[in-house]
Amino acid sequence: MNLNLLDAEEVLMEDYILEYKKGMDFFSNELIWLNVNMYIINQIRNFPLGLFCHQYDMIFFSMVLSNFFDTSILIITRLVKDTGEDLYTLLRFKNNLIQHIKPDYKSYFAKRLKEVKFDAKIDNMLKKAKKLRDVRIAHLIKDSIFNVEKVVSFDFDELENLCNALNSLFNVLAFNVEYDMLPIPYSNKFKQNLGTDYKTDLEKILDSIVENSNLINLPENQPELWERRKARMPDDQIKLFNSYRKNFDLPEV
């Protein structure tokens, strides 16, 4: 049986529907916040700041990455690692939902949950995220603050893996409702409908950095200096540079 084709009203006990809908709205908002953080982090990480910016012009983006990283750790850990009777977590919501599945659907739902169960790798990442939160982000543990990397090592790829794991668990709880984990302007569906010329606010900001950089028009403005600069650039960087020139209707160099 495919529970994706059934409404929550068909699968859940009637007296739980209102609580379920409130919970789904709450956790979808939490995950949208997390996914927006990840979207912005990935956009900045994939942008060649070192190519188009002087090192003194990268402080802002470094702070954005650092703060969004920390905020994402806080969101993830409070959603799945916090404990306490009065704490509202995604795992506690999931466990409560299981208790309100109609008997005819319990085995099918258990099978769906098994498909998205956190494996040992995800569990280990969650433990590391919680430790990082406890010793550096939420608290300053004296014995750890000068050796955080030795205490726990955690990177952006692991953060994205945890985000994807939470998205998958949430989607199983959604039955036949499709939740978009990004606000409309960042949604791929929205962008596809508007065509290739549509730019998000962040894409406009990054484009403006390229447009106002000295490098993008260097081949036309100072051809001799460009040739010396080009001689020091690896082929993949030249290819990337030309892809940005193409965005501004400039010829390859």
Molecular structure report:
The chain is mostly helical. The chain folds into two domains: 3-194, no CATH class; 201-247, no CATH class. The protein has 14 helices and no strands. It has helices at 8-11, 17-46, 49-52, 59-80, 90-99, 106-115, 120-137, 148-151, 156-173, 188-194, 201-211, 218-221, 223-231, 235-247. Helix 2 packs antiparallel against helix 4 (59-80) and helix 2 packs antiparallel against helix 9 (156-173). The radius of gyration is 23 Å and the shape is globular. 16% of the residues are buried. The model has no long low-confidence stretch (mean pLDDT 91).
Number of helical regions: 14
- How much of the polypeptide forms β-strand, as a percent range? under 5%
Evaluate the radius of gyration: 23 Å
What's the helical proportion of residues? Answer: 55-70%
Largest sheet: none
Strand segment tally? 0
Helix and strand run: HHHHHHHHHHHHHH
Distance between the termini: 58 Å
Mean pLDDT across residues: 91
Structural class: mainly alpha
Number of domains: 2
Shape: globular
Low-confidence regions: none
